[in-house]
Amino acid sequence: MDGDMQGKVCLVTGGARGMGRVTALALAARGARVIIVDWEGEEGTRTRDLINSRASRPLAEFAWCDLSSLADVRRLAADIGARYPSLQVLVNNAGITDPVRRLSPDGWEMHLATCHLGHFLLTQLLLPQLRAGAPARIVCIASEAHRVGPGLDFDDLNNEKIWKGAAFSNGAAFAAYHRAKLCNLYFTFELAGRLRGSGITVNAVSPGYFVNTSIYRNLRGVFRWGAVPVFALGSLLGLNTPERGARTHIHVAASPAVEGVTGEYFASCRVAQASPVARDPVIRRRLWDWTAGVTGIGA
Ligand SMILES: NC(=O)c1ccc[n+]([C@@H]2O[C@H](COP(=O)([O-])OP(=O)(O)OC[C@H]3O[C@@H](n4cnc5c(N)ncnc54)[C@H](OP(=O)(O)O)[C@@H]3O)[C@@H](O)[C@H]2O)c1
User: Fold this and answer.
1) What total number of domains does the chain contain?
2) pTM
3) Which atom of ligand 1 is nearest to the CA of 16?
4) CA-CA-CA-CA torsion sign (82, 84, 89, 91)
5) Domain limits for position 231
6) Using CA positions, which residue lies closest to atom 11 of ligand 1?
7) What Rg value do the Cα atoms of the chain yield, rounded?
């Protein structure tokens, strides 16, 4: 097992289930103290208890947070900041796919709010702890879905037009997800540049295709039933388990081979090429400025 994490503090968002859960278990198995952040209280406490039952001393805690709520993220960051003077790993993993257009408590569409705004704000607020914990790593979970879709529309960042007024739409969910994952990459590459030389690295991860987690459970119709054989075959061959999907999360968070590497996109535990659109420096700065404004962080 590479990457001794004894004495390190790691925070994993969406750590209650799926690949976040696998990542939390793996980091704790390497000796890290793990903060599991999620809005799934039952699964979150179960994951915490599983980790603690395997360790000789309590290594995990569960912190409830709705990452789509900016107030909740601020409350979480204040609580973590008060209790942990330093943090070595932040894994921005929580994500959703939802064909129903839902709004966060602040009125932002949920893909944007959860995948991008909440993680942007959480990361900014935890920078003092990450600086104190340096060398530290920020790992942002993106997706190959960043390649497939309409790209960002600065006149429709809140994803109103793509639903076209429909009550639900799988196509809109894919488009909103694609945009949210592009945002994850713009944020990763911009932040990596801003933090160069600080001792904090920032990288993005693609876990692979159709990893068999509950993230697709809200899809309907042909997308839902079409996914069943894909998942069944993948599981049979061991190709799309959350354990396999989370390998790159764990590699980028913990492996000594990744020490000092920053501003990269990883897939299958190797540096991969993100789409040229995701590397556009003008768009990523524009998105940064807009996000800093709406999250109240300032330039
Ligand atoms: N599965 C794939 O094929 C795949 C492929 C590429 C990238 N990814 C990315 O990998 C990451 C992990 O996905 P996964 O497949 O492991 O998903 P998952 O099993 O659904 O786990 C995600 C966790 O995040 C939680 N979450 C969602 N919204 C939240 C919010 N607003 N506040 C707090 N917690 C929230 C979820 O709770 P609920 O379940 O209650 O929503 C769930 O516990 C995501 O960023 C996803 O986009 C997944």
Assistant:
1) 1
2) 0.97
3) 43
4) negative
5) 9-293
6) 93
7) 18
Q: Where residue 273 sits, what CATH number does that domain have?
A: 3.40.50.720
Would you say residue 59 lies in a domain? yes
pLDDT in tens, 257-295: 999 999 999 999 999 999 999 999 999 999 999 999 999
d(CA 231, CA 239): 9
Q: Is residue 2 part of a domain?
A: no
The ligand 1 site (C-beta within 6 Å) comprises 14, 16-20, 38-40, 65-68, 93-96, 114, 141, 143, 207, 210-211, 213-215, 242
Mutate to test the pocket of ligand 1, among 100, 213, 241 (most ligand atoms within 8 A of CB): 213
Residue 141 CA to ligand 1 centre (angstroms)? 10
Considering the chain, what percentage of its residues have pLDDT values greater than 70?
A: 99
> How does DSSP classify residue 103?
B
Ligand 1 pocket test, pick from 12, 13, 19, 68 with the greatest ligand atom count within 8 Å of Cβ, gives: 19
> Quick check: is 4 in a domain?
no
Q: In whole angstroms, how far apart are CA 215 and each of 83, 97, 154, 208, 212?
A: 31, 6, 26, 14, 8
Q: Of 177, 209, 216, 265, which is the active-site residue?
A: 177
Residue 97's SS3 state is coil
Q: Is the pLDDT of residue 299 over 90?
A: no
Tens digit of pLDDT for each residue in 38-81? 999 999 999 999 999 999 999 999 999 999 999 999 999 999 99
Does residue 262 fall inside a structural domain?
Answer: yes
